[in-house]
Write a structure and sequence with these properties.
This protein is of the alpha+beta class. It contains nine helices and 13 strands. Strands 2-13-8 form a three-stranded mixed sheet, covered by helices on one side. It has a two-stranded antiparallel ribbon with strand order 1-7. The chain has a two-stranded antiparallel sheet with strand order 3-6. Helix 2 packs across helix 5.
Length: 272
C-alpha cells in the first residue's frame, strides 16, 4: 500500500547495512485477513534462507520500542535455552466464531459469508495468541516445512484474524522445536511471554488493586490499548519484557526520548 517512493527510500537505507533487508515478496495487507499472516510468512522464508546462522526470530510492529539493551535481549534469549516465548492459551468463547465460520475479503474488508468451517486438520486444538512472538530457528523451519503446519495454514486462510491463533497453535504441536504440550497447564499469557508488554484497559487498575494486572495507563488509549506516556516509564523498565507497545512519538515524544536516553546510558555502562 505504500507508494513506490517509500520503497525506494527504504531500499536505499537497507543497502547500507549487511544485516538488514527488504522482504522479497510484498502483499497488500487487509486488517484481520490472511494477508496479515502471509506478510509474516514471506519474512520468515527470506530470513530462514539468509546465510546468517541466526538463532531466534522476534516479530514486532511499528509502534513497539525496546525496554532492554541489545546485550540484555541476547541474555534473555539465551535464558530460554532453546525454548520459545509467546502467548498461547485457551481461546475465549467470544473469539471462537473467528475459527468456526468462513470469512472472505469483501470490498477491502474481511466479512463472514454464512458458511461453517470444516474441523481443523489432524483435530488440532486451536489456541489463542498474537502475532508478536519470540521463537527459535527450528520453529520457523517447521512453519516452512512441516506437513501438519502446511495443512493448518491452508485451513486458516479463510478465518478471521488468523495471526491471533496460528502461531499460538503451532507452539502447542508436539515435535515443533521449543513447543510446549497442548494441556492447559502449559498455557502462557501475553504478560508472561517476554516479547512485548501491552496494557489493555480492561486489565488496568489502581496500583494497590489485587485484581488488576497492571497500573492505570498514564498516557491515553487507542482501541483499548495504552499508548504510553512519560508517567508509565518507571513501571515499564521494571518489567521482564523485551519490548513495549504502544508508543506514539507525535503524541508524547518525552516517553520515547527518555526511554531512548535510558537505554543508551545502560548500553554505555555495559561497556565499562
Amino acid at each position: 500500500k505504500a507508494p513506490a517512493s517509500v520503497f525506494a527510500a527504504i531500499n536505499a537505507i537497507t543497502s547500507c547495512f549487511p544485516n538488514v533487508f527488504m522482504v522479497s515478496k510484498t502483499v497488500d495487507v487487509v486488517y484481520a485477513g490472511w494477508t496479515r499472516v502471509q506478510a509474516d510468512l514471506n519474512c520468515m522464508a527470506d530470513l530462514y534462507n539468509t546465510s546468517t546462522n541466526w538463532k531466534y526470530f522476534i516479530n514486532l510492529c511499528g509502534q513497539d520500542f525496546p525496554l532492554k539493551t541489545n546485550l540484555e535481549i541476547v541474555q534473555a534469549l539465551r535464558s530460554l535455552k532453546g525454548g520459545n516465548s509467546l502467548e498461547s492459551e485457551e481461546m475465549s468463547q467470544g473469539k471462537k466464531k473467528r475459527v468456526m465460520n468462513v470469512y472472505q475479503v469483501v470490498d477491502g474488508q474481511i466479512q463472514p459469508i454464512g458458511k461453517t468451517k470444516d474441523p481443523t486438520p489432524f483435530n488440532l486444538p486451536i489456541l489463542s495468541g498474537n502475532a508478536y512472538i519470540v521463537v527459535n530457528r527450528g520453529y520457523i523451519r517447521s512453519v516452512l516445512e512441516d506437513k501438519r503446519i502446511k495443512a493448518l495454514i491452508e485451513w486458516a486462510k479463510d478465518t478471521y484474524s488468523p495471526d491471533e491463533f496460528l502461531w499460538a497453535t503451532i507452539q502447542r504441536m508436539p515435535g515443533v522445536p521449543g513447543s510446549t504440550w497442548p494441556n492447559r497447564k502449559f498455557d502462557m499469557t501475553d504478560i508472561n511471554a517476554i516479547a512485548r508488554m501491552v496494557k489493555w484497559r480492561m486489565h488496568e487498575g489502581s496500583e494497590d488493586s489485587l485484581q488488576a494486572a497492571y497500573p492505570e495507563c498514564k498516557g491515553h488509549h487507542v482501541r483499548s490499548i495504552c499508548v504510553y506516556g512519560a508517567g508509565d516509564l518507571q513501571w515499564l523498565i521494571e518489567q521482564h519484557h523485551l519490548f513495549a507497545n504502544k508508543f506514539d512519538a507525535d503524541r508524547d515524544p518525552i516517553a520515547v526520548h527518555c526511554l531512548e536516553k535510558y537505554l543508551r546510558y545502560k548500553a554505555l555502562i555495559e561497556l565499562v
